[in-house]
Amino acid sequence: MKILDVEFVTSCSQPDQLPQDRLPEVAFVGRSNVGKSSLINSLLGRRGLARVSGTPGKTRLLNFFLVTTTDPALKRFYVVDLPGYGYAKAPKSLRAQWGPMIEGYLTDRPPLRAVLLLVDARRTEAKDGEAYGWLRDIGQPPVLVATKIDKLTRSARRAHLTAIQTALGLPEGELVLPYSSVSHEGRDELWQVIRERARTV
Predict the structure, then answer these.
(1) CB 29 within 8 A of CB 107
(2) Cα 92 from Cα 98, distance rounded (Å)
(3) Positive or negative CA dihedral for 133, 16, 60, 178?
(4) Which of 96, 104, 35 minimizes the C-alpha distance to 60?
(5) pLDDT (tens digit, 9 = 90+) per residue, 71-116?
(6) What confidence score (pLDDT) does residue 101 get?
(7) Edge-first strand listing for the sheet containing 25-30
(8) Angle CA(70)–CA(79)–CA(146) in degrees, nearest 5?
């Protein structure tokens, strides 16, 4: 599969601003500064597409990117970058707005085909477990992706991935996909999962 085009379409803060063309959507979720924007840029092969920042909470809206590929089963779909959870520095009014908006999107959005939950390969936090459990409870079992895997030595990776499975209480057999936005390790495997979840035929 080859990516033909990637286009930023819209940023949404209200449900009535969401795209209405019903193309498949793949949402990226994770705590602030886990590397969502870097992973999206790496996955789509575009520098600077999703905004990268060292400041947690920089993504404050639901950002939709339209992806066009050569795959007959997944010709066009949206990548959706959601605000990070744990955005303590964001104004209270914005946090109050994001909560209902994000919850509504994840629980009642028919075109949403997959949710990718990103966690830091080096350590998980309580909010990661809460997010994982909540997504499963609402019928959106997420694909777990361990970002920044390049920051771990090869010998340490297996232990860290196992620790994530244990900390989040993953069912037996459910895997965590390692990913590096620097070396693009894991990109092919993640694309395979996205194609399986989001394909239209």
Answers:
(1) no
(2) 10
(3) positive
(4) 96
(5) 999 999 999 999 887 655 555 665 665 678 888 899 999 999 999 9
(6) 81
(7) 3-12, 62-69, 76-81, 25-30, 112-120, 143-147, 176-178
(8) 105
Nearest to 31 by CA among 99, 124, 100, 101: 124
The pair of three-digit structure tokens given for residue 137, joined into one six-digit string: 């409870």
Tell me the pLDDT tens digit for each residue of 152-189.
999 999 999 999 999 999 988 888 999 999 999 999 99
Tell me how far apart the alpha carbons of residues 62 and 9 are, in angstroms, rounded to a whole number.
11
Task: Provide, rounded to the nearest whole percent, the portion of the chain with pLDDT above 90.
Answer: 68
- What is the C-alpha separation between 197 and 79, in angstroms, rounded? 13
Coil, strand, or helix at residue 172?
A: coil
Q: Which domains does the chain have, with CATH numbers?
A: 3-198 (3.40.50.300)
